[in-house]
Amino acid sequence: MKLGEGVEAAIHCAATLAGVDGNSTMPAAALAECFGLSPSYLLKHLNMLTASGILESVPGPAGGYRLARPAERITLLDIVLAVEGREPAFRCGEIRQRGPAKLDASAYVKPCGINAAMLKAERAYRAALDEVRLSAIVADYVSEADPRSVAAGCAFVERHQRPQRSVQKVQPSKA
Amino acid sequence: MKLGEGVEAAIHCAATLAGVDGNSTMPAAALAECFGLSPSYLLKHLNMLTASGILESVPGPAGGYRLARPAERITLLDIVLAVEGREPAFRCGEIRQRGPAKLDASAYVKPCGINAAMLKAERAYRAALDEVRLSAIVADYVSEADPRSVAAGCAFVERHQRPQRSVQKVQPSKA
Fold it and tell me: What is the ipTM of this complex?
């Protein structure tokens, strides 16, 4: 089972954006710099988050990204599904219906038990991710991480956030 | 999040092998035929299961595969880990330690909270898979699936299983 590397970047960026003031934004370049990532690599994931309604973007040279809703209403599941897609990890190819013992479709009306068991486990995974709010990730970071790291993170956000007058939203591809 | 297609094949093959008599084996070619899979594709996964101690193989033209222990002692987690590897789905690249705000290593002694939350969810997933025994998959199939499908599956196993005198084990690559 594998998650793309983009999940880590997406969660860290969303947590960082939870720290900007009011409706300020941060440019993708600053977020990329913050985590030592290529801006073009990161932009793909920021646009996925925007397309899923987790982030919103303000266009133009003074624009950037911000959370589209409060961090209390964003869960790790929201972010994982935005980046990885909503398809189940286990993809049933219905191989039970192949081979020489194949019967007509009426013999396969009930779902395959293997698929059902795999999907049940995945529901447990998603439920666990859905319990973790982005606000809790940030709160834990502030209270648990090394204070020097918290101070450096806050200073970085302070330095790179850009106040916005409007609450203009645009499509992810225009950001 | 994605699981390889081999997981479906591996579980179906293990469930099929739970139906062979005594220490009989089934050749890889029969298992491939049963699910309409390429034998070379399937062999890779059968060898993973053998390397993980879920299957054992008997070499030679009259050989094949069988479960290495009773189906009651094989879980879906065993099979998924055998095929997908034991690494977590979420791989933390410690991107928190990159970028211009990077501090010395002493600031990152505590694990990243994002990684911890992702791993916790994965433990829930694995626990759910570990609750499902291969014997339960087979029992549910026998009691729930269309009787024609069960009869065809049993007839296929009956036709292709090969009685073995010894309990000889070999390395997966020799199978």
Answer: 0.91
